[in-house]
């Protein structure tokens, strides 16, 4: 098992392995978040996803999120693993584990981590639908740019 | 020279993930304009990272810099 707290991998991610990295005697709570590949989005069927990352910078940004969390919730310990490459329906794309003495910090810090990942970590996903492909576009991961670039309402 | 990195749809539009530029534009803003003109791509919503740190348009560039063009991210 890789001991690095913040990592990008092209191998399947084990929730158990990420949780083990944050277990410690001081912890009375561990929260885990698993982001998985969804088959149906607004009635449209996904066949599989392709994730790509600027790996070296993505790992630095995950570490930065860890530093932000240590500042906001000093008693927590965080580990994040994000997978890249081809992922099938139901596969785990990201696991975030946070341990803390009490549950509230563990929940809040975990939520903070996934929101920050969607803002600053250079990872992109390409949807492979039954009838084509699309790079998913905005920072909330909910909008696709069919022409490969933002248009209309998305422009500043 | 500086090295340019392209990801996701930008990589497909440019046709390369990595390009070495022999000249060094003075700022990030000038580089963006040059890249937009050369490859006919729109970088309005694209963030730039210089040596793996997010950079503003007025940041100056140095020979040897690695400049990454980062479309809106969609991890998670």
Helicity of chain B, as a percent range:
25-40%
> DSSP helix count of chain B?
2
The level-1 CATH class of chain B: Alpha Beta
Q: What Rg of chain B is obtained from the alpha carbons, in whole angstroms?
A: 11 Å
The percentage of residues in β strands of chain A lies in: 35-45%
Compute the number of strand runs of chain A. 9
Largest interface: A-B, 36 and 21 residues
Which blocks of ≥5 consecutive residues of chain A have pLDDT under 50? 145-156
Q: Termini of chain A, distance in Å?
A: 45 Å
Strand order, largest beta sheet of chain B = 2-1-5-3-4
GO molecular function, one term (chain B): nucleotide binding
Pathway (chain B): Cofactor biosynthesis; molybdopterin biosynthesis
InterPro entries (chain B): Beta-grasp_dom_sf, MOCS2A, Mopterin_synth/thiamin_S_b, ThiS/MoaD-like
Subunit structure (chain B): Heterotetramer of 2 MoaD subunits and 2 MoaE subunits. Forms a stable heterotetrameric complex of 2 MoaD and 2 MoeB during adenylation of MoaD by MoeB. During catalysis MoaD shuttles between the two heterotetrameric complexes.
Tags for this model:
heterodimer, A: alpha+beta, Aldehyde Oxidoreductase, domain 3, 4-stranded mixed sheet, disordered C terminus, B: 76 residues, alpha+beta, Ubiquitin-like (UB roll), 5-stranded mixed sheet, 25% helix, globular, Mopterin_biosynth_MoaE (chain A), molybdopterin synthase activity (chain A)
């Amino acid at each position: 098992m890789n001991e690095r707290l913040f990592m990008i991998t092209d191998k399947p991610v084990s929730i158990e392995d990420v949780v083990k990295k944050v277990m410690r005697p001081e912890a009375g709570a561990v929260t885990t978040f698993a982001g998985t590949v969804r088959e149906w989005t607004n009635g449209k069927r996904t066949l599989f996803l392709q994730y790509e990352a600027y790996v070296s910078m993505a790992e630095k940004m995950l570490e930065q999120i860890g530093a932000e969390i240590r500042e906001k919730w000093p008693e927590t310990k965080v580990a994040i693993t994000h997978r890249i490459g081809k992922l099938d329906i139901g596969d785990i794309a990201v696991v975030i584990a946070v341990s803390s003495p009490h549950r509230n910090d563990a929940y809040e810090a975990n939520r903070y981590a996934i929101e920050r990942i969607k803002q600053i970590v250079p990872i992109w996903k390409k949807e492979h639908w039954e009838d084509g492909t699309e790079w998913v576009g905005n920072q909330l991961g909910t909008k696709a740019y069919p022409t490969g670039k933002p248009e209309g309402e998305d422009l500043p | 020279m500086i090295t340019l990195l392209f990801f996701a749809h930008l990589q497909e539009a440019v046709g390369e993930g990595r390009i070495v530029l022999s000249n060094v534009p003075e700022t990030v803003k000038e580089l963006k304009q040059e890249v937009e003109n050369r490859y006919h791509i729109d970088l309005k919503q694209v963030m730039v990272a210089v040596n793996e740190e997010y950079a503003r348009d007025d940041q100056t560039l140095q020979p040897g810099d690695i400049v990454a063009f980062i479309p809106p991210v969609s991890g998670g």
